[in-house]
Amino acid sequence: MIKGKPVIGILATSNYMMTNDTFQDTYRYGNNYVKKIVECGGIPYFIPLVDEKIIDDSLDICDGLLLPGGSRVRPVNFELLDYFFKNNKPILGICLGMQTIAMYSVNMENENKRIIKQIDNGINHWPIELLRDNNDSLAHKNIVKKDTKLFEILKQEEIVVNSVHKNTITEVGSKFRASIESEDGLIEGIEYTNNDKFIIGVQFHPEILPQFKCIFDRFILECIK
User: Fold this and answer.
1) Do 38 and 1 touch, CB atoms closer than 8 A?
2) What is the pLDDT of residue 117?
3) How far apart are the first and last CA of the chain?
4) pLDDT, position 192
5) Which helix (H) or strand (E) holds 9?
6) pTM
7) 8 Å CB contact between 187 and 139
8) Could you give phi then psi for residue 77, rounded to 5 degrees?
9) How far is CA 136 from CA 27, 41, 124, 126, in A?
């Protein structure tokens, strides 16, 4: 905490070793995530990495973790999840971040089991070409299960969300549950079931939809606790 505000660690997307040019070994942080954390009263902390490795003691400053969307799951994702899970610090996963939490939850019990698959039927979950003025377009309906943390946060059984993903998860570990499903039956929200930790993930992108600010508000509140 800094002056009463929680410090939220954000994992960068990585271009490390993607080319033969060492000057292109860069890390990037999405403005939309940072802006939403600031709006909701948190202090963004860009988790520093060296050669895709966490710097010793650099996570101790964090009160919570935001795992954002991206194009690939990296080993450092699981290292971060392990630290925040074991230290009872809140976690919010978005898009690939949610899928990574699901993988972590399953691999705690069944190491290396694959649970991410390409979407091959149902509604179009990548319905638009992403541009600056349309990435908040609503795509389809989701069903929120009652008696879940996400229902408590959203206070609705049905929500309409944006959608920009081509993969989905098939299951979560026994300590987690699927709390939101799309109208064609895909898992679009997950959460840790017990009350000793606050861990939630959503497949859609609430950081660019004002109607879902409540997700970030609750996450920040849990980090303050």
Assistant:
1) no
2) 81
3) 10
4) 97
5) strand 7-10
6) 0.93
7) no
8) -55, -45
9) 24, 22, 16, 12
For the chain of 225 residues, list the mean pLDDT of each consecutive stretch of 10. 94 89 90 96 95 94 94 90 96 96 90 81 80 80 95 95 86 94 93 95 94 96 95
Q: Are 218 and 153 in contact (CB under 8 A)?
A: yes
Both tokens assigned to 224: 């303050």
The span from the CA of 21 to the CA of 42, in Å, is: 35
Q: Tokens for 214?
A: 């409540």
What is the phi/psi pair of residue 204, to 5°?
Answer: -80, 180
140-144 sheet: strands from edge to edge: 43-46, 7-10, 64-67, 91-94, 199-202, 187-192, 176-182, 140-144, 158-161
CA dist., res. 199 & res. 72, Å (int): 21
Residues 207/54/199/222 CA torsion (nearest 10 deg):
-80
> Which whole-number Å values give the CA distances from 209 to 161, 182, 200, 214, in the listed order?
8, 17, 17, 10
Record the tokens describing residue 221, joined without a space. 């509140």
- β 91-94/64-67 pair status: parallel
pLDDT at 145: 96
